[in-house]
Amino acid sequence: MAEVEEELQQQNSSVDQVGTDEIITEGASVVHGELPQDDTGPPKVDSEVEVLHEKVTKQIIKEGHGQKPTKYATCFLHYRAWTESTQHKFEDTWHEQQPLELVIGKEKKEMTGLAIGVNSMKSGERALLHVGWELAYGKEGSFSFPNVPPTADVLYEVELIGFDETGEGKARGDMTVEERIGAADRRKMDGNALFKEEKLEEAMQQYEMAIAYMGDDFMFQLFGKFRDMALAVKNPCHLNTAACLLKLQRYDEAIAQCSIVLAEDENNVKALFRRGKARAILGQTDAAREDFLKARKFAPQDKAIARELHLIAEHEKAVYQKQKELYKGLFGPRPEPKPKSKNWLIVIWQWLLSLFYLLFRRKTRKDD
């Protein structure tokens, strides 16, 4: 990609400029990383146990990248939590599709152990934390939400999406509208830079953090120019994530990201195009054609849309020919009609009748 667009794109802009090999800066639900595979209990991890604190240990499930957060960094993370003794899961942000915002050094008392673990992680890292009850829900536990028994050691499966080194530990709720939009926009730009380096997973983490700043509760409060400003950051993050997912061949997730944008802007050409691409690859031909035809209404001269429609037509033609050959072979060739055998008695009889008729005509003429 030559350069990253910085303004919200017009609906009739060329999809050639925003194909699956490029990234754009255009925006709601929360993007999330690949979900943990085993949902029956804490994951089984064989990696080395790292002692972070007398009451906190860590085992790495997936390596991260970059630096670790420092004190007062605003961290965004997904996690699942179980009581160690009963294996009862009492929290799951992946299931809720809403990452947790945690400011290191300003966390709630019951999350002290979790914060110690997060403080040792890199962006994109996933780990299993063992936290003693003293740094979790304590001697009394919690009888509301979440429901944790007294003196319960806790297991956390944690993924650090990313973090902001704000310096003063300002949480999203304490930011002004402009500050939240600005923080999200910086994340979007970081994601664009990572995309250009083909670091797709890292890029998606940045987009997820940007979207986290633009959560549903925040968007619900915005009107007029502030909502337009937020969408100018949020929608591109969803579309950029879809571009990454297409490259990673995660087509169902790409469709979901485009659908989020289309719920806000039903005529978004880029969202229609990318969703159509994913649907076509999955064999959802009718739905893909519908997306491309709708996109063509707003970009009638776009060559990429025309090419995709042509590919669908060629594919359907090939499928029809294949089915035709299949059915032809199934029933076999049409049998040729057999020539009827002649009955010589009838032939002789017909000859005699003809001869008699001729003789009769000649005699009649002679008498006349």
UniProtKB/TrEMBL annotation:
The record ties this protein, via SMART domains, to: TPR (SM00028)
Question: E.C. number, please?
Answer: 5.2.1.8
List residue spans for each TPR repeat: 269-302
Alphabetized, the UniProt keywords read: Isomerase, Membrane, Repeat, Rotamase, TPR repeat, Transmembrane, Transmembrane helix
The protein's enzyme class: isomerase
- For this protein, the parts annotated as crossing the membrane are 343-360
Q: Where is the PPIase FKBP-type domain?
A: 72-164
Segments carrying the region annotation (Disordered) are: 1-45
Note whether Isomerase occurs among the keywords. yes
Q: Which reaction does it catalyse?
A: [protein]-peptidylproline (omega=180) = [protein]-peptidylproline (omega=0)
Query: Which molecular-function annotation in GO is an example for this chain?
Result: peptidyl-prolyl cis-trans isomerase activity
**What PANTHER family does this protein map onto?**
ARYL HYDROCARBON RECEPTOR INTERACTING PROTEIN RELATED (PTHR11242), TPR_REGION DOMAIN-CONTAINING PROTEIN (PTHR11242:SF0)
This one is known as peptidylprolyl isomerase
Q: Specify the species.
A: Nicotiana tabacum (Common tobacco)
